[in-house]
């Protein structure tokens, strides 16, 4: 049962990362562009640029994994101490998936208010990242990625609620790893390709299909909570 729930959570996290690509470009597009143009024109070789982008994303996803482990561990402590919280955390994860679907489909933008929760921490971390710029070395890109992984983001917070409900530091880390991997294809594209992808992801039909797919995942998460698996 635990393996089935983890597999479903991993699939949900991966798909959420892929579907949230347009939002990721909006949140991280600026820093990715900065990585692209920090090098002098004579040094902007595709291989070197790709190396900087990979190191940045390695740092960013590493921060997601750390955050997932922390909240998953917290969920484990809470569940062990207060058993009734198991159901509550599971329903909270379903709610966050619904809110994410509403945000991506642009039906309701309330998820943006969740981002305000992390602004206090971000005010302390953001100057550290700024001191690492301009980026000309892979270790600088890694450092900025480690910092930018804590950028307040409603989609990330939604996935962290899913990690919290997993009730395991390991499972929480795995869920955030796959969410990060889902966002990777979008953020590896830069310049004109990124703009074309953003335009595509923002098309009404794609947004609505993405939102409906997330609602399906929310229903799959809620299915055992409602006891429907015992009926069918």
From TrEMBL:
Tell me which UniProt keywords the record has, alphabetically. Answer: Membrane, Transmembrane, Transmembrane helix
Q: Where is the Urease accessory protein UreH-like transmembrane domain?
A: 12-219
Q: Which InterPro entries match?
A: UreH-like_TM_dom
Keyword Transmembrane helix part of the UniProt annotation = yes
Q: Does the keyword Membrane apply?
A: yes
Reading the lineage from the top rank, the first entry is Bacteria
Q: Output this protein's name.
A: Sulfite exporter TauE/SafE family protein
Q: Which organism is it from?
A: Marinospirillum alkalitolerans
Query: What does the record give as the organism's lineage?
Result: Bacteria, Pseudomonadati, Pseudomonadota, Gammaproteobacteria, Oceanospirillales
């Amino acid at each position: 049962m635990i393996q089935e729930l983890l597999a479903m959570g991993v699939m949900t996290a991966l798909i959420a990362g892929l579907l949230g690509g347009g939002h990721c470009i909006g949140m991280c597009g600026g820093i990715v562009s900065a990585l692209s143009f920090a090098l002098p024109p004579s040094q902007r070789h595709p291989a070197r640029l790709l190396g900087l982008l990979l190191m940045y994303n390695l740092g960013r996803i590493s921060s997601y994994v750390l955050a997932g482990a922390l909240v998953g561990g917290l969920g484990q402590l809470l569940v062990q101490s207060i058993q009734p919280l198991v159901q509550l955390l599971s329903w909270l994860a379903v709610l966050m998936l619904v809110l994410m679907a509403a945000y991506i489909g642009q039906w309701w933008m309330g998820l943006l208010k969740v981002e305000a929760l992390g602004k206090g921490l971000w005010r302390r971390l953001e100057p550290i990242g700024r001191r690492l710029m301009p980026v000309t070395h892979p270790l600088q890109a890694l450092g900025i990625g480690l910092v930018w992984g804590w950028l307040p983001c409603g989609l990330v917070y939604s996935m962290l609620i899913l990690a919290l409900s997993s009730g395991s530091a390991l499972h929480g880390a795995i869920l955030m790893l796959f969410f990060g991997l889902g966002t990777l294809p979008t953020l590896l594209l830069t310049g004109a390709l990124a703009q074309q992808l953003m335009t595509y992801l923002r098309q009404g039909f794609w947004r609505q299909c993405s939102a409906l797919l997330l609602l399906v995942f929310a229903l799959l998460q809620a299915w055992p909570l409602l006891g429907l698996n015992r009926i069918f």
